[in-house]
Structures are given as C-alpha cells and as structure tokens.
Fold this sequence. Notes:
Blueprint lengths: L2 E9 L9 E6 L2 E8 L4 H16 L5 H21 L7 E2 L1 E9 L2 E9 L3 E6 L2 E4 L6 H7 L5 H6 L19 E5 L6 E5 L1 H4 L4 H10 L3 H14 L6 E9 L14 E3 L5 E3 L23 H26 L2 E6 L2 E6 L11 E9 L5 H9 L1 E3 L2 H27 L13
Antiparallel strand pairs: 1-11, 2-3, 3-4, 3-5, 5-6, 6-9, 7-8, 7-10, 10-11, 12-13, 14-15, 14-17, 15-16
Helix pairs in contact: 1-2, 6-7
Amino acid sequence: MTRFAWGAASDTGRVRQANEDSYLVVDGLFAVADGMGGHQAGEVASRLALETLHAEFTAAGTDVLVRAVENANDALVSRSTADPELAGMGTTLVAMALVDASGRDAIGVVNVGDSRLYLLSDGELAQITEDHSLVATMERQGRLTAAEAAVHPQRNILTRALGIDGTVLVDSWEILPIIGDRYLICSDGLFNEVDENRISATLRRLADPNEACRELIRLANEGGGRDNITCVVVDVIDDSGRDPNADPANRVRSSHTGGDLTVTDVPTTEPKPPKAPGAIRRSFTWRVGAFIAAFVFVILVGLAFIWWTGTKTWYVGVDGDNVAIFNGKPGGVLWIQPSLAEDSDLLLANVPAAALIDLENGVQQPSLKSARSYIDKLIEQNAKTATTTSTVTSSTTSSSTTTTIAQ
C-alpha cells in the first residue's frame, strides 16, 4: 500500500490584500486552487472548488477524479449565477490522488489552469502539468522562448479555468508511485518569483515537507511576493521506514505514458591482490561481465520505454478538416511516428475556439476511452454553443452585456 508524508503552507505575499489561494491535504488526496474574480469572489471560488472535489472524490479512480473536477466546475457556475456579487469568479485547480490502475497503485493527476504539479525524481525536477495560459500556448507553439514567456505582459491570461463556462476540459495523467519521489503542487505565486533551479535545490536540500514549503514561500516573498503563494509537498514513503535511497532498485522513474526506467549502481572495483610471479592477467573478469550485462539491460529497458511511449499512448489531434484520435505521441518519438487510430464526425469548424490551439498541438490522453470522451465533450460544448446562438437569433429583442474577468 502506497503511503505519503506531506506538508503545506500558504501566504498572502507582499502585495495582495487577501489570499485567494486554497489547498486541500487529506491522506490520498492533495490539491491547490488559485481563485480569481476580485473582492471575495476568488477566495469563494477556490474554497468551493476544493470542497466539491473532496466531497465528489468517492472512489479511487482517475476517471472519478476527473468527474469530481467537472462537478466542481458545475458548482462554481451555479453559485456565480445565483449570486450577482460572485459573477465572473473562477479558479485554477491542480490535484493528485492515490488511485487504482488495473489492480495496482497509481497517482492520478488532474489540472485546469496554470497552477502546477512538479515531480522530483532521482534529483531531477520535471513539470508534469501543462499551463492553460495564453503565453504557455505561444511558448509550446515556438512563438515565444521560455525567457520571453517569463516576462510577457499577458502571462496571467488563462485559456482554461473552473467556473467560467458550463463545460470544462480537464487534463489527466497517471504516474506510478515510487518510494523516494517528491511531488510539489503550487500556485503561480511560487514559480513566477522563484526559478526552477532554486525550487529543485530547495526540494533536494530540505527533507521535511513542511520545512520545504516554508522555505519556498520565503524565497517567493524574497523575489517580490507579488501574488498569493501556496505550496503542498508530498513524499512517497516506505511502510518499513527505511531510507529509500539505500536501495538503488527503488529509484524508478515513471510518467503518465507508463514507461519505466530503472537506474542501478555499477559495482565498484575492489583492490586487486598482488599478482603472483608467472601468473597470467585476465582481461575479462566476472565484474566486466556483470558491467556488460547491466549496460545491455539498461539499453534494452530504454528501447522498451521508447517503444511503449511511441505505441501505447494516445492523443486527440487534427486529420484534415476533422478531429481524430491518434495512437502515439504528438510529433512521434525518435523513429516511431503516430498513426491514425480513428476519425470522428467532429469538424474543426465546429470546435470551440479555446480548444482549437490545443488540438493542433495534440491533446494527450491516458487511454482510447478517454480520447473518445474528450471528443464527446467537444461535441457537447459545440451543441450548447449552437443552441445558445439559435436562441439569441430568434429573439425579437436584443441586449448586450459585457463582463470583464480579471485574475
């Protein structure tokens, strides 16, 4: 049974008057939400989203986690519609939870917006989630460099958030839990002020999750503290309490594609005894054989990982004028190119504008079923938009309302 140790902290920062961030930490479910809407609306949005997520996550499944986020979106839309003072409120949400994946433990990850989840594994920090923001989209398209994106004046404009529309698209992943891995969930108040090298160094240096959270917040405030700052650090721990770093075989890197890469130590060379007179020196010893076997094993595992990544993954993309499902990774992996799995009846002309850019880049999905579900949601969203347009056209009177939402 996978077990976690965790710490959490949140701070208003040096500029904002109120903290619109919220976080959730219960055994097996961790989340951060960054509210927006001004006044108290952002605080209400982030808190309501996490309360709904907690209440709706009733079974250990990634699909259940996704539905819980969708229900949180419904709750925000209903609340803002019923209360004019909360009109226009919204929130980001990123969460991780212990789930069951075909009979084994996995970590389900969901994300909407630009709050992030990082994984520190083998001392290397990797961003798991993708930001749903205008600047992040431009960076993925190659229109901006990372340095340009970091200082772009429109970096706070979101392309996706909870509470803004009746239908929301939720990104999801599944990751194998590995003893010794450390996860960081945070709002943009952290990574906009502290670069990833310093975040990584802090997570490696401070073993206690609560201490790591407090230090990250201190660094963000030192960097300017221009936004609310929230951090949740979650460690995958061993039931027996032994040091996971003592056993190199436990250091396994996992991603949502399902590939594994095991890193083992190369045996150290022991001092050789003095060679007896007339003895013949052997150039091939059992240690050399073990090293060669280990090297070949790592190469084979690497090839298996590439094959799995290139053939056992899915994404939704563009096939001519239609939306389609592809088997593989967007752009391919080395020599393995993606192949068309199945076409859909959804035309690009009928895709909501907010999702069109994502489709052109390829929207990765954990399974074929999830890919089909993603297309069904796009069709449903288009149908709602068409119905609304038809109703407005047939009306004998017209009105215009302009609402400005600021994060």
